[in-house]
Amino acid sequence: MKANARLFMKDGNGRIINDTVCVDVPGLAADGDYIIFPGFCDVHVHLREPGFSYKETIASGSKAAAHGGYTTICPMPNLDPVPDSYEHLKKELDIIEADAVIDVIPYGSCTVSEEGKQIARLEEMSPYVCAFSDDGKGIQEEAMMEEVMRKAKSLGKIVAAHCEVNDLLKGGYIHDGEYARKHGHKGICPESEWKEIQRDVKLAEKTGCAYHVCHISTKESVQIIREAKARGVDVTCETAPHYLILNENDLQESGDFKMNPPLRGEDDQKALLGGIEDGTIDMIATDHAPHSAEEKSRGLEKSAMGIVGIETAFPLLYTKLVKSGVITLERLIELLNDNPRRRFGLKQEDSWCLWDLKDRYIIDEKDFLSKGKASPFKGMEVYGRCLKTVCKGKTVYEYKGE
Predict the structure, then answer these.
(1) Residue ranges per domain, the chain?
(2) Residue 287 annotated in active site
(3) Of the listed 42, 176, 256, 287, which one is catalytic?
(4) Stretch 135-161: mean pLDDT, rounded?
(5) Is the pLDDT of residue 233 over 70?
(6) In the CATH hierarchy, which top-level class contains the domain 39-348?
(7) Which DSSP string do the residues of 249-312 spell out, in sequence order?
């Protein structure tokens, strides 16, 4: 059926185009609120291939991304082999070339095997990667991080950091807060995150490196980055939907609620929302991190860390932040697309997604195209269904109805 859809795209001057176009997609309803957005961009996902294809593949992960309205994603390098040289990176690039249905631009690792001991072969990987990261591990030695930053600076590349001080973890696996104390769990203190961010922004200021902080979760992290930006440090950051929508009060004794960083306190959540509103936080990335059902079935203590999120990000954020008046729809699209593309230099070529914002439904893992099914949002009611995603002029996802 044909129907009119509102364009929500920007012209060359950054203004929203106020226009409508006719679209023809099977199953369109006469009363739908159809809107076309630019294809979203996620600079922090885990596709698990090569090395862990039982969790996810580039094929399944890119199809899941298209289902969520994404046309560009950047997979992290905690793979086997780790892409720490062109030889290792090419294994991933070959699979991307063969199997990806959208644009997939990988990271190269900062250090050999992500062990933090020896700098990786950044120069030979530089033309093929979006940035460098040892995601999943914080680089513990300050001298090594400085060396990585200086090399990345010389190559014109971003260093994206998972910030975590290992000596402060002490076996923790959820936030060190009231829930952990009440239920006898070992907590991860906020300092394990913000202490390393504090170190790294000083190094970025010293070296002039473009620095990006992954998945911030604490109020201290927001303030450190806010102050660094005010000093002129070349720093950006991301947070994830779950840190904006949930906090430790929402925890359940299920692996669906276990991720790293963990869900923090209510004050941290409020600070993150403040950072979204005032521009301290530049973008929202999902940290889509699929695992097998068995790996996520062991409860909070023993389940693998990580949840899926790329298929539910827009509906959740639209429902919880836009419809509730926390941010505007324009600001959400900046966070999901404009800012990550601008920061990481990721092009957008004839890529868009069509949504029905009136469609209300319950999040059901059976609808996920990802191999991973662990989500704390299962059973939540949301608005907004992706009906079609187009990447470089090719339809890569189309909703087939219930």
Answers:
(1) 39-348
(2) yes
(3) 287
(4) 97
(5) yes
(6) alpha beta
(7) GG--SSGGG--SSPP--HHHHHHHHHHHHHTSS-EE---B----TTTTSSHHHHSPS----TTT
